[in-house]
Fold Glucose repressible protein Grg1.
Amino acid sequence: MDSIKQGANYVAESVQQATSGAQKTANKEVAKDGNAPIGTRASAAKDALGNKVDESGHDAKAEAHKQQM
């Protein structure tokens, strides 16, 4: 029963990792866009860094759940 719970947690963290990765990529593109206002670009760059941290955290949590299965 515990392995089923860990499996579900692994899947949930993997999905969140993928979402954070997609958001990071989108924010990086906005940050690189020379036609966007500088404030928007700076905000997107900051958000991309936050997404990278989230992505790494979800990856670590997913791996921990995987190891517990």
